[in-house]
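seq as requested:
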Amino acid sequence: FIGGKFDNLKRMEPLSAVILAFRDFYDQIVKRTGEAYSQAIGALKEVVGPEASVLTNIIPGICQMLEVSVVETVKVGGTEARNRFKHVFRLLVRALATPSHPLVLFLDDLQWADTASLALIESLITDYESKSFLFIGTYRDDEVSETHPLAIQLRKLERKGVHTTKIKVGNLTKGHLNSMISDHLQTSLSVSDPLAEVVYRKTSGNALLVIQFLRSLYDEGFMHFSLNTRQWQWDTKVIDSKGVSDSAVKLMTRQILTFPAKTQNALKLIACLGSYTDECVLSAITADDNSGSQQENSHVWEPITSGHNELMSSLQLAIRQGIIVHTESKYKFTHDSFQHAAYSLISETERGLWHLWIGNRVRLDQTLSPEKALFITVGQLNKGAKFIDDADERVELAWLNLQAAEISISYTAFVPASFHLRVGRSLLDENCWRDQYKLCLQISVLQAEVKQCEGSFKEMDKILEEIFLNAKCLDDKIRSYFIRVRSLSAQGKQQEALEVGLLVLSLLGEPVPTSSDMRAIIKEEFLKTKQLLEGKTNDDLLSLKAMENSRKIAAMQQLNDLILFAFVARQKEYHVLVFKTIQISLCHGMCKEATIGLAMYGGLLIQYFNDIEGGYRFGQLAMSLVEKLQASACLARVYTAFHTFINSSSQHHRVSLEPLKLASQVALRVGDVEYSVMSARQYCIHSYQCGIELSTVEKFLRKGCQQMEEHKQVVVLKITLPYLQTVLNLMGQSDDPLKLIGQA
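C-alpha cells:
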C-alpha cells in the first residue's frame, strides 16, 4: 500500500503526489530482506531493465538498485517522451504488482492533481496487462465542475468501460455523531444525546467542525473530567449559548492565534510551503550559514529570525495540539483547513514577501537535491515576483523557470511546463528579443512545443510566427519548423505537413525534386542513387565517416518524419524521399537516421525493382548500422521495415514474428507509438498468413486494435479492422462470411 497527497500550493510541481508515493515504495523495497527483496529486484530487472533510466528523476536510486548503468535516455520530442514515460511506468507497476504482492495506490485531493498525474493514473488504470493493481482516489466534489480536468478524466474512463466504485462521504448524521461522542466519552447514548444534539445543530455534522468544536469545549473549560464521579461533565445550556464559526478555517484560526508568536510564525512558514514539507527544507530555510548571503541580497525583509533548533522547538506546541504531525522527516498539517488557517494569518500585502524570502533562502542552500531546490525556489519566487524590481534578478528568475519547464517536460507534465514558460516570458521586458535573445528563443521554442503536445495549435502558431519573425538565422528556426510539420501531421494534415517539410529541406540545402511527371523523377533519382552506391561494399558503407554537418543531420531528421507521411499520403514522393536519404548519407556521412533510409531503400528494391538480393542486402546493412551506432530509437522502424517489406521475400513469415513483436515493444519504450502499432499490425497479419490458429490471431488483433485506439492511431486502426473481420468471418462469427461487415 502506497499513498500520496496533492497540494494546492504545489500544483505546478509535476507528479508531486505520484513521486512521493513511489519514492516511499522504493524505500519499502529496499527494506525488504531475503527472498522478498530478490523477487522484487528480479521482476524489475526482467520487466523494466535498462529503461529504468527514464524513471531516475522520480526514483533516484532505481538504477543503482537494479545494477544497471545510468545512461542518458534517447532524446525524443514531447509527444514521444510522454508515450515513453507512460509505457515505462506501466512496466514498473506490472513488475511490482503481482498476485502474491498486489499493489494499492492511494492518492488524496485529486481536485488539485496536475494533468500529467491524471494522464498517468489513467494509463495505469487502463493497462489490461496489470491484473494486481488497485487505485483509490479521493477528491472534493464541490471543487470539481463539469469542465474540471478530473471530471473530464473520469468521464473518459467511463467511456472506456473501466469499472469504478464511487463512495460519497457526507456529513455525520445525528445518530452517528451521538455514537461517536458516546464512544469517546465512555458514556451511554442516552447521556450523550443532549450534547450530540447541540453539537449537531452547531456543526451540521461536518466531521472536522465537530472535532474542533469538541476540542474548543475542552480547551475553554466547557467540558471537564470529574475525578469524583470518574465521568465527563458538561452543561448543555451553556454550550448551546456558545458561538461557533461557520467554517473550520475560522475556528482553527482562532485556535492558532492563542499560540506564542514564534509558533504562529513557524506555522505560517510551513503553510507557505503547502500542506506538508520535509524537515530538510525547513533546515535549509533557517540555516545559519545562509544569513550572511541573505544580507547581501536586496530583499532583507525577514519574517523569521530564529534558527533551525528554535523553530523546531516552537513547533512542539502545535504538535501537541494536533495541528501538525511530525512523522519520520516530514511536518504535515493534520488537515488542509489548518494550513489555510495559518496561511490566512499572513496579510495579503505580506504574502509575496514571505514567499520571496523563502525562495531566496532555498536558492542559497547547497544541501537539498538540485531538482527539489529548483522547484521550491521557483514556486516561491514566482509568488513573490511582483516585489522583484531588479532587472537582472527578473532575468535570473526567468532562467530558473525555463529550467523548471524543461524538467516538467521530461516528466511529460505539459501544463506545469506551460505555466513556467509563461511566467518566465512575463518576467522579460518588451526588448527581450534584443537584450535576452538566447533566453527568449529557448522559452519561445519550448512554448511552441508544449502547445503542440497539448493540441493548442492556434496558440502554437502565434508563438511560431513570433519566432520566425525574430530568430536571427535558419539554425535558430529549424526546431520551430519541425514543430510545425509535426503539428500538421497530428491534425491529420499529412499533405500540408509534406509541403512544409519539403520547404524545410530546400532551406537546408536539400531540395526534393517534384513535378507532374513523378515517374521520370523517380527513375532519375533512383539512377543517381544507384550510381553513388556503385562499387561500394557493405564494409565501405559501414565505415563511412559520421555525419557532422548540423544542417545535413537536420535534413535527415526531417526526411525521417516525411517518409512516414508520404507512405500514408503520397506514395510517389515516398520513393524520392527514400532515395534522398541515401544520397545525403553517401555524400556527407552516416547518422542514425540513415538506418531507416537503408531499410526503406531495401524494401523499394524488392517491391518496385524486383531486386530481392539487393533489397535483402540493404535491409541487413540497416540492422548492422543500428547496432554499430547504438541507434535504439531507430531499431523499431528498421525492424518494421525489414520484416514487412524485405524478409518475407526470402524467408518464411514465422521468422519475422518475434522481431516484429520486439519492434513493437522497443518502439513503445522510446515513445514511437506510430511504429509500435504498425509493427503490431504486421505481426498480426503475418500470424494470420502463417496459419496460426484463428482464435489466437483474433486475440492478437483485438489487443493490437485496443492499443491503436488507446494511442489514437486512427489510420492504422482503419486498415487493421478488415483483417479482424476476416478472421471473425472465417470463425463463423458473422452474418455473411462473404462480406467484411460485423463485430469489427
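Residues 578 and 601 are 6 Å apart (CA to CA).
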